[in-house]
Write a structure and sequence with these properties.
Helix content: over 70%
Distance between the termini: 58 Å
Number of strands: 0
Order of helices and strands: HHHHH
Length: 160
């Protein structure tokens, strides 16, 4: 099935953001695990896997539209050096992704590609959910302090 070139280009742009997210969240998961923050490790790792699944869906859609998935056009990852910075970096990426996804949704609507639009809406919903979680973590850090927040991210099994 021959797809619209603009839609394929927009899907590839979203795919690029998702590929950045896979790597950024995976690295942040492993940093958190290294620091003994198993709860953060688990969350970041699960989000990395979710991004991988969404990337798989985008690749399948691009191929169905007779496009070529672009797995080479990586943008910049935002890597944090402490817990608040990691959360801020992930939130920055989610906000960046949100703008790109919503632009792609609008394009799909104008091109009457409602299947691609639905796929993007699913990604946008996941993006919004994760963005809400990250904003909640920032609020928690602000209200209880970074030290208590970090203590809350150490599971009982990890505690000395």
């Amino acid at each position: 099935m021959k797809g619209d070139k603009e839609v394929i280009r927009a899907l590839n742009k979203v795919l690029g953001q998702s590929l950045i997210a896979i790597n950024q969240y995976f690295l942040h998961a492993r940093i958190a695990r290294h620091w003994g923050l198993e709860a953060l490790n688990e969350n970041f790792y699960k989000q990395s896997i979710a991004e991988m699944k969404w990337s798989d869906d985008l690749i399948a859609r691009i191929l169905l539209l007779d496009g070529l998935p672009n797995l080479q056009d990586y943008g910049k990852m935002f890597i944090g050096e402490d817990v608040p910075e990691i959360i801020d970096c992930n939130l920055r990426l989610e906000k960046q992704k949100f703008a790109i996804i919503t632009d792609a949704i609008t394009l799909c609507e104008t091109q009457s590609d409602y299947v691609s639009r639905q796929l993007l809406v699913t990604l946008k919903d996941g993006n919004e959910e994760y963005q809400d979680w990250l904003e909640t973590q920032e609020d928690l850090i602000e209200s209880i302090g970074v030290e208590r927040y970090i203590q809350s991210q150490v599971t009982e099994d990890d505690a000395p």
